[in-house]
Amino acid sequence: MITFLKHPLIALALLFASCERTPGGAPPAAPGPPPPVEVGVITIKTAPVTLTQDLPGRISALRVAEVRARVNGIVLKRLFKEGSDVKEGQVLYEIDPASYEAALDSAQGTLARAEAGLNSAQLKLNRMQSLVSSNAISKQDFDEASGSQRVNLAEVLLGKAAVKSAKINLDYTKVTAPITGRIGLSQVTEGAYVRTDQATLLAIVQQIDRVYVDVNQPSSDLLRLKKALASGRLKADASGQPSVKLVHENGDIYPEDGTLEVSDVTVNTLTNSVTVRAVFPNPRGDLLPGMFVRARLEEGTTPNAILVPQFAVTRNSKGEPTALVVGAESKVELRVLETPRAVGNQWLVTSGLKAGDQLIINNLQKIRPGAQVKVVADAPAPPPADSK
Known about the structure:
Elements: H1 2-6, H2 8-20, E1 37-43, E2 47-68, E3 73-78, E4 85-86, E5 91-95, H3 98-132, H4 139-172, E6 174-176, E7 181-183, E8 193-194, E9 201-218, H5 219-231, E10 243-247, E11 258-263, E12 273-281, E13 292-309, E14 314-315, E15 321-326, E16 332-336, E17 341-343, E18 346-349, E19 358-360, E20 373-378
Parallel strand pairs: 1-20
Antiparallel strand pairs: 1-19, 2-9, 2-13, 3-5, 3-8, 4-7, 5-6, 7-9, 9-12, 10-11, 10-13, 11-12, 13-18, 14-15, 15-16, 15-19, 17-18
């Protein structure tokens, strides 16, 4: 008794140990292993997939012409409706022609006087030519008459040039459309004074029966597209140009197909990209310059493609894409994948999975490679998405 009092902690430990024993004296049973984690899976299947690439870009007009004043004056009339289609040569504005009509009359009068002087000088020269041969007049008088005739001829040429210039300026008082297309808002109104030294902008005409779509593409992708076109995998039209579809901002597909026409000859060193231009027909005028769109290229069809949801793929410490599958004996296996591109909300897998594999898509945080799992049932397949 004296010994236990000296060691109270030992006495308490013995007391607790005696209380934990069962009446029969047998120790408690050890806990069993936890049950396997239930997981949902997708059974991998192969299917043909059409691969496309969407490139953002903006629409620009096939041709753009700025209508500017080429003579000074007051705008008398505007002869078009804003936003309408105009023809090449159609009169758009009339500038006050009074001063230019007067200038033309003056130039024509000067020309008539020069022509009269030339006629008189020519007659005098013809008479003196017959006299100089008989020494009736001196050689000096004949040379002076010949020089006077040439001076009058030069004045006639100057007069004709002045008349032509005056006619051109008078014609410029009727401002015409330089190209056929759609005209925008008028920049001036009747009564406005326009000047040539400031090249006053009157309006802009844009040809939009066909339009350009300029997109920037990585230089590496351009090389890949060229190889795909050469191999026949890239869809092309009858002339051999790559075919392109147009996707609006709201996702609608433009009904007319376009063609990939040209690419810039220089790579942008800042973005390592190349500007690629596609041409689209625009018979109804639905495509307007400045609209943001996406040009979609069809790069061919993969007959036995494997697509997996992006949420089922993670990355390891090396940055490699990985996925968990149910392997032999219902144990989790880690697979390293190759996913060269996204197709909508899924990854295209070219290595690491095969048809029939059971891809785990939930409870990924509760399992580790080698853990025992219980497959509840195949999860529903993800909704189809447009390939990109």
